Amino acid sequence: MIAFDFPAVLVEWPMLLKGAGITLALTAVSATIGLGLGVACAWARTYGGAVLRALVGAYVEAIRNTPFIVQLFFLFFGLPSLGVKLTPETASVLAMVVNLGAYAAEIVRAGISATPRGQVEAAQSLALSARQVFTRVVLPPALKRVWPALVSQIIIVMLGSAVCSQVSTQELSYAANLIQSRNFRAFEAFIVATVMYLALSVMVRQLLNWAGPRFIFGR
Amino acid sequence: MVDFSLWDILRNLLQAVRWTVALSLIAFIGGGLIGLGLLVARIAKVRGAEAFAVAYVQLFQGTPLLMQLFLAYFGLALFGLNVSAWTAAALALTLYSSAYLTEIWRGCVNAVAKGQWEASSALALTLREQLRYVIGPQALKVAVPPTVGFSVQIIKGTALASVIGFVELTKAGTMIANATFRPFTVYACVALMYFVLCFPVSYWARTLERKLHGHR
């Protein structure tokens, strides 16, 4: 007979909460920088010169066709032999930023390429500079068009961050692992962590759907 | 002291690639079958199927694949089954794929014009005939590119099986890196191999998509 012992796990709630907090912090930092990187790459792939376009294209393809865990291991275990030593947290954030940047670049680029030509022409005829055309006329509606896809991608990256426990970043899945190594209640610990991830992903989706129109691209 | 040349590293990794491929195939085929079953149950309006599918998809898309793997690994053990990492990984990845595939395909079925359903039922086709001769072929055309695209996700997902100790490409990479003290080279090779596996598939998916949208 299977006997579950959830209280043994739940009694460690401070550790779980702290883990969830670190997961959220990792996500917040890497989503902010990653989106910036994605927009920059989308700009480069749309308006950049041939060399820049090829470079960004190679970056996007390299990231999109390799697993996140390998990217993380490469940064954390591989780079020190080149003399670049990263803390687990830095490596995690860096891996998440690089990963999100590549996916966001493709998503934002799709949004930019859907801009009606007339809008750009109208902006140019109003003597806006190239920079103003991009930041004021092209980018906001482009972000608005693809915001749901970006939100989904941010959540995918947040869920992917569970892997960061493998380089000893002390986020939610690390907490679950630690708890199960103390009380041997592996199944219960991972159930609790899974439910917390589910709650986090629902919460973050709501938050970003609310925040996007208000702070990122205007209504 | 055994010296590992670059060729030794590559050769050992290449041997592990087949497990990545095998696991991906199992997850894709198993996930496809379960996903298709769920989809048909939803279309046939089996009682409770809709609510179940919605919860199922939300559960697998809203939680980390890593947690799903751990739960399969430790959960099956609870039932007294002596599970290998291989079984647990195959099970978790199959369920994970089925949730995504059923959702992708549902979108493709919904993309078939409503009139097609009405016309085919006006011709007194049974649900089975409708799906087989009218809706299926049209949905299939739209479904191929995203399905191929998702198979890249599956291949990358199998990398997580390394965490529960299944020796596929990533795990082999970790083991070789620990033995050779050359993590930079080894992980670069591992990444390269994933790229060689995934890039043709994602390129193919993109070509299919372009064709689909080019023709109309």
Could you name the key traits of this structure?
A: mainly alpha, MetI-like fold, 9 helices, B: mainly alpha
In short:
The complex is a heterodimer of chains A (219) and B (216). Chain A is mostly helical and 219 residues long.
- Assigned CATH superfamily of chain B: MetI-like
Main CATH class of chain A: Mainly Alpha
* Number of structural domains of chain A: 1
Per CATH, the architecture of chain A is Orthogonal Bundle
SSE arrangement of chain A, N to C: HHHHHHHHH
**Biggest sheet architecture of chain A:** none
Describe this structure in words.
The complex is a heterodimer of chains A (219) and B (216). With 219 residues, chain A is mainly alpha-helical. Chain A has a single domain (6-216), classed as Orthogonal Bundle (MetI-like fold). Chain A has 9 helices and no strands. Chain A has helices at residues 6-10, 13-47, 50-64, 68-78, 88-113, 117-125, 130-160, 172-183, 186-216. Chain B is 81% helix and 0% strand. Chain B is built from 8 helices and no strands. In chain B, helix 1 (6-43) runs antiparallel to helix 7 and helix 1 runs parallel beside helix 8. The mean pLDDT of chain B is 92. Classes of the chains: A mainly alpha (219), B mainly alpha (216).
